[in-house]
Amino acid sequence: MHRHLNKVVRELTALMLAMVGGTLLLIMVMYLTGARKDAYGVALHLLTIAAGAGIAVLYLMTIGRGQRREARTAFAIVESTQRTNLLLLTTDRDGVVTWVNRRVERLLGRPASAVIGRGLVEAIGLEVDRDTLDYIASGFGAGAGFHLDGVCRDAHGREVHVALEATPGSRDYPDTRFVIRGADTTRLYEAERELRRLSLVAMRTDNAVIITDAKGDIEWVNDGFRRITGYEYEEVVGKRPGDILQGPETDPETVEYMRSCLKQGRGFSTEILNYSKHGRVYWLAVDVQPVYNERGEVTNFIAVESDITATKQTLQALHDAEAFARSTIDALDAHIAILDSDGRIVATNRVWDEFDRVLGPEGGARIGENYLRHCERATGAFAPGAWAIATGIRRVLSGEVDRFEEEYPYDLDGKLCWYTVRATPFPDDARGRVVVMHYETTDRKLSEMELKRHTEALESAQAELQIRTSELASINQSLAVATEQAQAANRAKTAFLANMSHEIRTPMTAILGYADLLATREVAEEDRNDFAMTIVRNARHLMSLLDEILDLSKIEAGRMPFSSEACSLVELVEGVIEVMRVRAAEKDLALQAEFKGMLPSIVETDPKRLRQVLFNLVGNAIKFTERGEVRMVVRMRTRKRDGARLLRFEVLDTGIGMTPEQAERLFEPFSQADVSTTRRYGGTGLGLAISKRIATGMGGGIEVDSEPGRGSSFFLTVQVGIPAEASMMDGEALHLGARGTVPQEPAHAEVVPSQRKIRARVLVVDDGKDNRRLISFHLKRAGATVELAEDGREGVDKALRAYNQGMAYDLILMDIQMPEMDGLEATRALRGNGYDLPIVALTAHAMAGDREVCLEAGCDDYLTKPIDPNRLLETCEEMAGRRRKAA
Predict the structure, then answer these.
(1) Radius of gyration (C-alpha) of the chain in whole angstroms
(2) What's the pLDDT tens digit per position in 742-774?
(3) pLDDT of residue 193
(4) Per-residue pLDDT at 493
(5) Is the pLDDT of residue 131 over 50?
(6) Which residues contact 326 (CB under 8 A, 6 or more apart)?
(7) DSSP SS3 for 173
(8) Are 838 and 860 in contact (CB under 8 A)?
(9) Contact 133, 119 (CB under 8 A)
(10) Is residue 776 a contact partner of residue 764, using CB atoms and an 8 Å limit?
């Protein structure tokens, strides 16, 4: 039995050596007798050294039935190889992997099946160069194996350092030519790298590094120690630092503190004054820490020492500077405090502290208090000044301004004092502190106030003098302007009156002369009619002069009415051309209208005012043109700024033209190009001024372009509407299509009134005998029954009497300006008594606003003198018998 067990042991040993390799150190076999005769227990201890690590394996076998013995033994061996942290692989003689343990699978993150059958380098992902590959191949080829330190990647792609050793396998297992044992040396590699780095730092640092044993004797120093102390390594090894570095000025308490810490085995940090080998005194900042072994025992001390001599000197210099600054600011009369970034007082000078004691607990601000809140809590008459100081200091603290200064009053024991506060950032201070300084300025303030009073008095006197001088200059200038304006107005008045005298006397001469001829009996009948027509024509010319003056008055007063109605564009233009063609023909001038571009057939405008302006422009063109032609060109434009539709009328002539200076005065009232023009061509000089204002009132304007001797071009624009029923057509086509539809106005209106029939009773109230007779003549000839009254009171009596008797007049024609009772008063009296039949005002007042005055008094309509017979009869026919609606 024992021989059989020994054979089993030998086989197990061979298997382990084949699987694990290494050197066999010990085999211990124990034979244990069991309760059964046929069973023995064997305890086998096999200890080998593999890849630098020991493996102890305990195999327990029960020898009973032979068929189970070998299986249990193999199982125990395989389990031991799978549980180890070593990397275990076997390869054939070509280096192809034939087996791996679980540690290899975990490292690679792949099952054994994915590794077996691959070459070693590929199987575990070794990162090798060409020379290393050759080295591995030669190891396999020679059957000698190899040793290799390399790098591979783990399952997470991390870099892993490994140490691999390949040794030939046991001859008892020919399929296993090489057994490869490996270990993960990553931590060892990193520790070595860190050790090298720390060693380099320790050697290269400017600080002194000392390593002592547990008793404090020096074992090692770096170059920094040698530089600071002047001692070489050999001079200090085995000695204690305090024995060679401390001197007479070294603080004994610090030395005792250091000895106590070392004795207790604990670390410490302190500052100490030491001496170099050559006697230099220097300061060190010392940090000492113990090093423990695995049992928690102190084995060494490591000291790191920094030379802080320069820092100490700087601190001393700073202390001296602070002491000097403190003594300096304490000597100043100003109240000085330093605030931190929150506004809290961190330092004050002597004067501030003394003032604080004077003010007492309620008034002062001390170190530690927030000065900004102190100011913001202020009450009383001087509180706004304190609030302003807090606001200003906050602006300095925030960096919004780099300086704040404010003068403020303060009541100190009933005496009004003045102070100036100044806040500036603390120089070169990263903590955002501010220096606040208050200093008394009462004497200076009183002097300034006194000086200010004198200065203000002087400035007031100077200002008064300047005002008087300026007023005098302004008065002189105004007088000069007024004088010039008066002279210009006088010249204009003289020229205008002379011109108007000419314009009035010329037709009046014809009127009076032909009236005298009509009064004689020797005039033939055909001459009588011609004389009458001449009188009418000149009378109408006088009326046109009056109309121009009245139109200007209405425009200047803002009472010029404008209407808007649809009218044919071609008919309106051709109507003007046809009327003016007679005057053009008298001078052998060609006169025509041209329509350019796309134009609407119908426009919405004030046709009466538009005709008035066109008559004036065309009339002037004919007047000032001796030969050639006059053309009117019509176009459509759109105003850019508001999109308004404008009609543009271009009146072009080949007349005398004018200079720019003459053109500049052209649209001024009572003005023509010059006096010679007035003498030669006549006219009041009001036409263009009126036309300009009418064009402006219609949303447009008039411009002129002229050159002496080459004619003039007038450009009239008016804003128009385009109704929906209007069609847009080419100008020439529009003109041709409308030709023949234009009514032909006669060159001279008929003198004889329309043959109207008026069946009505009319009361004519007028203080003028000739007017009563003329109006009565026209009314009676039309079939009306006429009664007369010489003044307003008589008219009221007659009208009310007839009204109350049931025989009311169908119409009253009421003169406005009469003695006793004027027409307005009479109309109000009638309306006040319930008179509800029509009253038409007759007045020589034709100024702006006169019509409104009459209508407000109760009149139903308004006729101006001289009376137009046609207008008179038309109004009477329309108004007679119409009753007013009850109010």
Answers:
(1) 65
(2) 444 443 444 445 567 889 999 999 988 888 888
(3) 74
(4) 62
(5) yes
(6) 349
(7) coil
(8) yes
(9) no
(10) yes
Strand, coil or helix: 178: strand
Distance CA 90, CA 116 (A): 9
Residue 43's pLDDT is what? 40
Position of tokens 């394996």?
A: 57
Using DSSP bridges, classify how beta strands 811-815 and 761-765 pair: parallel, antiparallel or unpaired. Answer: parallel
Q: Helix, strand, or coil here: 641?
A: coil
pLDDT digits (tens, 9 = 90+) for 765-820: 998 888 888 889 889 999 999 999 999 999 999 999 999 999 999 999 999 988 88
What are the contacts of 23-30 at 24+ separation with CB within 8 A? Answer: 23/48, 23/49, 24/48, 25/49, 29/5
Burial class of residue 391 in the structure, from the number of CB atoms within 10 Å of its CB (0-12 exposed, 13-18 middle, 19+ buried)? middle
State the pLDDT at residue 378. 84
Question: Which residues, including other chains, have CB under 8 Å from residue 493's CB and lie 6 or more apart?
Answer: none
Rounded CA-CA distance 486/480 in Å is: 10
pLDDT tens digits for 572-604? 999 899 888 888 998 999 999 999 999 999 999
What is the C-alpha to C-alpha distance for residues 38 and 30, in angstroms, rounded to an integer? 17
Q: What is the pLDDT of residue 806?
A: 92
Q: Residue 307: helix, strand or coil by DSSP?
A: strand
**E strands, 223-267, where?**
none
- Cis bond upstream, residue 600 (ω within 30): no
- By DSSP bridging, strand 415-425 and strand 404-412 are antiparallel
**pLDDT computed for residue 478 by the predictor:** 80
H-helix or E-strand containing 43? strand 40-50
Whole-model pTM: value is 0.38
Domains and CATH numbers, the chain: 2-184 (3.30.450.20), 205-313 (3.30.450.20), 333-440 (3.30.450.20), 448-557 (1.10.287.130), 561-738 (3.30.565.10), 761-879 (3.40.50.2300)
Q: For 547-559, b where at least 16 C-beta lie within 10 A, e where not — what string?
A: bbbbbbbbbeeee
Strands (E), 503-617: 565-568, 590-595, 598-600, 602-605
The span from the CA of 210 to the CA of 237, in Å, is 10
Residue 747 amino acid letter: A
Tokens read off for 124: 């575990």
% of the chain surpassing 70 pLDDT: 78
Q: Count Cβ atoms below 10 Å from residue 44 Cβ, excluding itself.
A: 21
Residue pointed to by tokens 């004619």: 711
Question: Crossing angle of helices 823-832/792-804, nearest 10°?
Answer: 20
Interior CA angle at 552 toward 547 and 557, to 5°? Answer: 125
Closest CA to 345 of 368, 375, 372, 322: 368
Name the amino acid, one letter, at 790.
E
